[in-house]
């Protein structure tokens, strides 16, 4: 059973200039009928996540880097083509069935030229794939070509010299023209005369190429160069007058064409936008993207999600650009070397003025969904990079991709000056290409980050617009004391809240510098993190525990299972109801000496009729000297202050480099339930299971470990796979709430070597799962 969830709570959220509206209100135009019942807008639901390494050429190492950056689709919407700069090729995928993507093979661009040639962008016109290829030997000697490939035979049928290093390509709506941004990007390690390393200008200057497609075979296509500097390299008056940062080195980045044949191109490093008439090749307007001041964002990389920072007058430095209609255009303000406003903006192309700006709301979306990458706080935050616009069933949508927080935000832009937030779509790492396929109700997202060692692979994900309820998000946060969403992530444990049957506690781990206990309300769909409590040491200072387990004591306060970097660092920590440390219980020295860096991974407790409190804790891996494949379940008698140990036999794995261990423990009546999992994710994941063992009434006998017989209660892997996303590795939280529902949660590691997606599962009733109330 998947997590309880609904899109309704998110559909009513509206983004205004710099503010995220509350989830409880629906706008008037979303209400229908005499009772004014809110009407749920259609939503995008993920249907497939395809790892592109599975489409590699025969004989290639599965661990070799292969990525998916920019994608295009055939005119029938059934064949997707993506660039793979890392492997110097393009890939072909069959997306006829949105729930079952199939690899169709690849074409090496390097084999058509030089071994270092890499595709940077792609589009499709008719039966031909247009691929722009960077062939540059160096930054000082940029070069590139436009390859035309038959979609049917996958053979190159024509090639054109672009005269420089290309970045992006776009088609006009009437398919008469293609436009290529020839960036001739700067060398970030070089310093121009009088400047610093990475500064502008650095010759040669970039320009545009317009490709005339109509009425000719690909071999005869003509190219028209549109210079963005004077013949002698001087600044064009239009660019200089617009306040472009370095008009002698424009570095065109991303191109988009509206229905009137008007091209918009961003000059990211120069914080500018230029408009060009495709028919004549004439520059019609140039304007600065301007600056933005943003409050309420995390600007200090210190392991603490603190959204009280601000940015003052930072250049937007837009990357992707897309037309909302023939007048208004939008930019994703990623930033480069001087700026980045952590959001996106809408411009009036007639005046060059900003008519709407996301302010801090894009970054707040990341925080609310557990996707805020705190490790990027001092750089460009959520880093909005990709942007695409398309019309589905008469509604105009904008899709804005977060490169560093791994999501795509969806907005209704039917009124360009008043975008309305609709939902967040989870992606794998580094979503680069956003490809609407409105003829089939699909959106494809291609992600460029690929790290086989970390188990994070590049993918193409598909989402389909429909009337159903998306699986994501399954948990979000409410506003905190400062009005910003409570920042969260790395939920590695769960506990019921005594006396509150529909609430749970969870706790953050070492992904963050300060430990917090978070309260989750399961009555809301998605579940809502509504309170946070900072954990403190005995002196009252914020504590940084690697908390891998939490148990809320019926008499008040908490037990935490704290994992150490070494065996001796593992300990039980008792907190009072205010989160202050009141007791620390170390491991026995002989047990600690046999542990490495993987120790405590869960804690629970019982209180007898006589008031005797017994704490149970699970060790993730075996202790040196214990039988192979057996891990320990610790029994700590609080009154006596003594430990005793039982054994638990793990399943085995035949996967090289894998291991299996425990990651949670909780009391279920007269049994202990544990999570047993492997360290694999994605399609490689195999073991994500809940087992139970009998709850011993007495301390373990001395001598050899008594291994408790185990019983499989539930295989969680199908529940994780049912989300159609990247199967998460760290299934780490499990508890039975006061209402008898069983909940589990995955730990997203604060986005470190993880997609960042958190899966919060309602697994059903305890009676159904464990055979008891």
UniProtKB/TrEMBL annotation:
Cleavable signal peptide: 1-28
SUPFAM superfamilies: YVTN repeat-like/Quinoprotein amine dehydrogenase
Keyword Signal: yes
Phytase-like domain location: 487-749
Keyword Transmembrane: no
Domain Choice-of-anchor I: 340-422
Protein name: Phytase-like protein with esterase activity
Domain of life of the source: Bacteria
Residue ranges of the region described as Disordered: 25-45
Assigned keywords, A-Z: Signal
